[in-house]
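BACKBONE GEOMETRY TOKENS:
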Amino acid sequence: MASLPSFVGSSTLKVEPDYRKHSTTSLSTDKSPSISYPRTHTLTQSDGKSESIRSLDFQEALSMIKDSSRIETSCYVPLLQECIDRNSFSGAQNFHSHIIKTGSHQDIFVMTFLVNVYAKCEAMENARKVFISLPRKNVVAWTTLMTGYVHNDQPDVAISVLQEMLEFGSYPTNYTLGITLSACSALNFLELGKQIHAYSIKYQIVHDTSVGNSLCSLYSKCASLGSAIKAFRKIGEKNVISWTTVISACGDNSRAAKGLRFFTEMLADNVEPNEFTLTSVLSMCCTVLSLSIGAQVHCLSIKLGYESNLRIKNSIMYLYLKCGWFSEARQLFNGMEDMSLVTMNSMIAGYGEMMELAKDDLSAYHNGTEALNIFSKLNNSGFKLDLYTFSSILTVCSKMVALEQGNQIHAQTLKTGYLSDVIVRTALVNLYNKCGSIERASKAFLEMSTRTLISWTSMITAFAQNGQTQQALQLFEDMRLIGVRPNQITFVGVLSACGHAGMVDEALGYFDMMQKDFKIRPVMDHYTCLIDMFVRMQKTW
């Protein structure tokens, strides 16, 4: 487990004595770091002519700056910002070369901004080289480099940079601590996070927004919702990110109802939610199947101007599907000009659920056909299909007993590399079982590199339903042997297998094992299996 370096001293981290009076950086971990700069700059060309950078096209400015011999260092900033906006790594390199050529590399402000540019362009090796070349390294530079590593999925390196900074003798600010906590969250370094939390209390910065937000996120990630809420409550000025973080924390820790109460509190505090807040709230509405609250959030999203926001529309559509508002979900789907893979996957899964709720076989078949049509459209859309696409459409094929379509999708999973995924493999087991091809179901199961409880249970049930009792019971014993704990559904398969073979004593033994060894209370399905067995054997209790 990571810990703060021993060289820091008894207080673990030190700050400058006047830290609490003055902020030393404008970097924020709530959003991407930004450094303020003048909005209009003048470029002096070699022929003596001057022109405003802001009035030039990016490519024109790039061309002119290559030919210019005299330039104010502040002129680089809007051009470097344009590199960020365009994600132009080559542009950043060109400006970097010119900065060195004109001697502007001695300007720590410009060079620190260049570190930020390379980080945003996902070129951390370049960012590190620029940082190393800085004539002076202040806390803004250190924090910028750390932020780059965190945002480029290298949180462990960010922690190492923090240690370097402390060895160097530079003092962290609230924003430095915020990004460090984000790194801890990504790495699940709870103990290090707790040390930073204690430090922030000692130096009375626990009320800072960026620190509080990061603490809330860390504790949520480490499944400590109580601590996350306490950190949130300590924040002095709660912004929309603060509220969104605590709401999401509740959802991530299976406390959806509590998250919805925080959302109500947020609105009462006159804080306007953003798209991330709304999608998190809609997700919790799905969890508790609260259609009424979800419909109100839908209206609120329209009022706030998010009517065309794809993330929110996807969340609303999925909520309507989960709650049985299929016509409303379909209306939303048909009205979308832009669609994502998530949109398509949601509709395929939604039609699969509609098949379960269909009033007759014809309606179920119609819903399955609609799902297959969407899958066909998705195949021709240019989107790269994922495991959720394949597992959902294979489930639809299972319910339709559509072996031919299932075989085609099986071949496609092999071609795209998703056949190795346990979720897709399990869906194939179910498909072939439903279609009566127990040999192919068994082959799909045996070829799994890893197996989940659902995989084992699916195969046990498949053997039981196809009258292969010994194989079902042997598989159950194999599952127990490797340490997989059975659940209620597993025992339904086992009891069903015994019932088909008339194995009364074995069935009663497994029924007793279920209760005594695994503390599983019998439900109606278990009793139904036993009753069916006794009817078959023409026996009574």
